[in-house]
Amino acid sequence: MLKVAIIGCGKIADAHAEQIGRLPGCRIVGVCDREPLMARQLYERFPVEACFSDVRELLENGRPDVVHITSSPESHYGLAVICLEAGCHVYIEKPFTLCELDARRLIELAASRGLQLTAGHDDQFSHVARRMRHLVQQGYLGGTPVHMESFYCYEMSQSTYATALLSDPSHWVRSLPGKLLHNIISHGIARIAEFLTTDNPSVIVHGHISPRLRSIGEEDIIDELRVIISECDQTTAYFTFSSQMRPALHQFRIYGPSNGLILDQDQETLIRLPGKKAKSYLETFVTPLSLAKQYSANVATNVRTFLKRDFQMKSGMKCLIERFYASIAENGDPPISYREIVLTARIMDAIFAQLTALKVDSVKTGDPDASPESPRANLCIAGD
Amino acid sequence: MTTASTLTPISKPFIAEPSDLILVTGAGGFIGAAVVEALLDLGFTNLRCFVRATASASKLRRRLSQHSRGVNVEIMQGNLLSPADCARASAGVSVVYHLAAGRGEKSYPDAFLNSVVTTRNLLEALVSTGFLRRFVNVSSFSVYSNRGSRDTTLDESCPMESHPELRGEAYTFAKVNQDKLVLEYANTYGVPYVLVRPGHVYGPGNLPMSGRVGIDTFGRFLHFGGPNPIPLTYLNNCADAIVLAGLHPLADNEVFNVVDDDIPTSRQFLRQYKHSVRPFKSIYVPHAIAYLFCWCWELFSDWSDRELPPVFNRRRWHAFWKKTRYSNLRLKTRLGWTQRVSTAEGLRRYFDACRAENLNA
Does A83 lie in the same domain as A167? Predict the structure, then answer.
């Protein structure tokens, strides 16, 4: 029986407790939050054996095999170090750490102690994401991806979290290097990182505060972000984060030399885009018909999954946790490669560094549209 | 119709002098701002209005500008999650009206954090001041459970929901725990408290229709309320009740439900809404069918391992859609509360505001 603990009893901890509860062969021996009332409310609502407000007490009394760190991002690194040093495997919610260097250090520490780590990129393990990965692994794209597009939008008006952030000048999210973006975009960046083939892509960033946020006096939170990521002469990718565009997409498009795929996270649909076109006018009839057929098949798949009782809101998290625990039991590869975790952190570092430079420049020049003086995160010269 | 406040400057022996410092948390909110105005109307001259957001502070400042002569209204911006802010807010206060709470939260931890942890921080700060004469905790009808007999009257003697986590509403879970916390501080530290539990507070500024009438989750409005009375209380009537609860000498350690007289049934309310605001189609769901719907949803939620979260369940049906009568007897007899704005006038103002918003949409 695997003994599990959760540190940080906020919103996302509910999802962890719920998904862990669905898995056989594990039990939650303790939950911990520096605010005792928060630890207690989680303890009272889920089958949890004890609650604590001190991490070391949790580790000493509960003696967990695995710890899920679901606290705020700035605490991830320090808590993970304590847990790894106590001999626990660690699942860290996104963003994994505040910077690439911390991510590397944790991975080194885990490796030196024979422990496993994973990051909370659970969207990567939803039913539809797994279907996409399977197709890519089977060679559907026809080779290395040529181009990817990842949309990760956020409807601020629908979120009490965003309301709290915007109304509170001292909200903890504002202290993160990438502020709101830091807490949200890793899902969308990780999708790209998974399919990059080199470790040092070039990153070009444009970010701004939307007119809507400016109209309510917001001057700190960038809520519109466009990123171009490219590997020299190989794969390129666009990443879009927007709080204003509608529909608020959570979509990933990947195109290879032969075919492409479109994954829609919200609809849980996966659409194949065959590279070969029908002849002449037939394209206007055959292709839409084929798309209609594919959408119908997606509906059928979703209904089947629903009837099999495996279509919960966070079923991707359940799968990720299941695979993580399996990797611990079998001492196998972690469900998310460390390379992907580090690369995601590296791209995010580059994005936030450029946004900071952009802000410094706009303050210097007084022009909110100023371009950064500082060089791109990695300048890739053709032929390198 | 009565429009004059029943809280005319009074010779009644209130527990606080007009110059005593009174703290109102959530003062920028829908009810909070009305409470502040009611206190000013009553002649209290030393108020501290605690607000979280910058926008709320500016809005409140504008709203109170007409009351500014001869009164000291301090608008303090902060976060009750910060013990330091709570200490600042609590310094020297005699009476506290605690209206700040997490509303509209769907997440249990978020609702709990913004209602319970904040209340704990505030109470901790108040306990150490030694000045406190009364802590008015503004709660809600949603904390009650009225499961049991078929036709019930909901009053202050009804028990609180024993398992609020099973109601499927984060707000109820947070509010039950908030009330329990206040009682705990009363027992442990002797904090003098009053629990005020309003029904559905309505008026311009809070336009969404009460869920007790029905829901439009599935594309067509499902009318669940039918012949049930809807426990409405107009904003100013509710604010008067809250203010009285904080000042009346006989209110200590009591619970008061706040609901207006002559409240309409759900059917009457919906008919008037359609007539006065906009026509739309609705489907009446009889009580037995509504109960069955909630039960089936609950069963499916359990069977499917929460593929559908249990937002509809039998506990919620009992609390929201079971035929229940409401009493404001204690409020009237103990505190001498009377309804300042008649229900007919309150509904007229509310429907006017809804119509205006509908036209602007």
Answer: no
Using a CB-CB distance cutoff of 8 angstroms, which residues of chain B are in contact with residue A169? Answer: 54
For A168, the closest of B79, B107, B120 (CB atoms) is B79
Closest to A164 measured CA to CA, from B50, B81, B32: B81
* Contact call for A309 and B303, based on CB within 8 A: yes
Angstroms from A318 CA to nearest CA on chain B? 12
Residue A162 and residue A97 in one domain: no
Domain of residue A115, residue span: 2-119
- Which CATH number do you get for residue A6? 3.40.50.720
Q: Which of A11, A37, A306 sits opposite B120 (nearest CB)?
A: A37
* Integer Cα distance of B40 and B46 in angstroms: 9
Contact A311 B307 (CB under 8 A): yes
Is residue B196 helix, strand or coil?
strand
Residues of B in contact with A164 (CB under 8 A): 114
Tokens of B67: 């009351």
How far A261 CA lies from chain B's nearest CA (Å)?
A: 27
Residue with tokens 């490796």: A111
Which region among A67-76, A265-274, B205-214 has the lowest average model confidence (pLDDT)? B205-214
Residue A82 domain flag: yes
> Given the structure tokens 């460390």, which residue do they identify?
A338
Whether residue A186 sits in one domain with residue A73: no
Amino acid at A224: E
Which chain B residues are Cβ-neighbours of A42 within 8 angstroms?
109
- Rounded Cα distance, B267 and B228, in Å: 8
CA B108 to the chain's CA centroid: 18
Q: What's the complex ipTM?
A: 0.91
Dihedral pair phi/psi, residue A309, rounded to 5°: 60, 40
- Taking only the tens place, the pLDDT of each residue in B121-171 is 999 999 988 889 999 999 999 999 888 766 688 999 999 999 999 999 999
Q: How far is A44 from chain B (nearest CA, A)?
A: 9
- Which among A119, A148, A173 is the end of a domain? A119
The predicted model scores a pTM of 0.91
Q: Does one domain contain both A109 and A153? A: no
Residues A73 and A184 in one domain: no
Check which CATH number belongs to the domain holding A288 and give it.
Answer: 3.30.360.10
